[in-house]
Amino acid sequence: MDARRFHRLRAALERRQPDLTALMENVHKPHNLAAVLRTCDAVGALEIHTVWPRPERLRAFATGGVRRFVTLRSHPTLAEGLAELRARGLSLVAAHPAARAVDFRSVDYTRPTALLLGQERDGLSAEALAAADVTVAIPMSGLGASLNVSVAAALILFEARRQRDEAGLYDRCRVEPEIYKRTLFEWAYPRHAALCRKRGAPYPRLGDSGEILEPLPR
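Given the sequence above, the corresponding structure tokens read:
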């Protein structure tokens, strides 16, 4: 591991926002899911959630080299996905052009937030909208009712990033120590991490420049 790359990985991890994520409900176009994943990486999210029958197809689409830096968590049902987000104390913000929707910029994204996004044709389901704490929309000046889901996600998530940056949430590491150590090793040494998991062995400690300080399992 090159020391300069290791420090770059560590700096990115120290800016991650463990309480900012997105959930995609039945988005059947993998390139949209891939685009949202890239946006989640850009705003510092640790993971993205999906309710989708075949998330493995994401590997066939370009993700700008960030696929292994943002965890993709797939849920068999929307209810299970929402329950996990709720259990983490996240506020559910639904992006949907409903009559009751508020301007997306009026929401406080410095709070723990999960952005709910639906497929382009029908948007979010009634179940997702009923579960949301607030519904937001992007003001439109043209004849279209909404934007492409990945474009909408980028606008809203970068508004969240702007607010969090102003609040100083990127100025200190907010990832729990154990998750930080585990994630850093997986980012720096993905093959070694896979070997450790296969052998049921703990990850070895890393030095300040990214060197492995303990023997790897055989």
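DSSP finds seven helices and seven strands in the chain. Try to locate this feature in the token string yourself.
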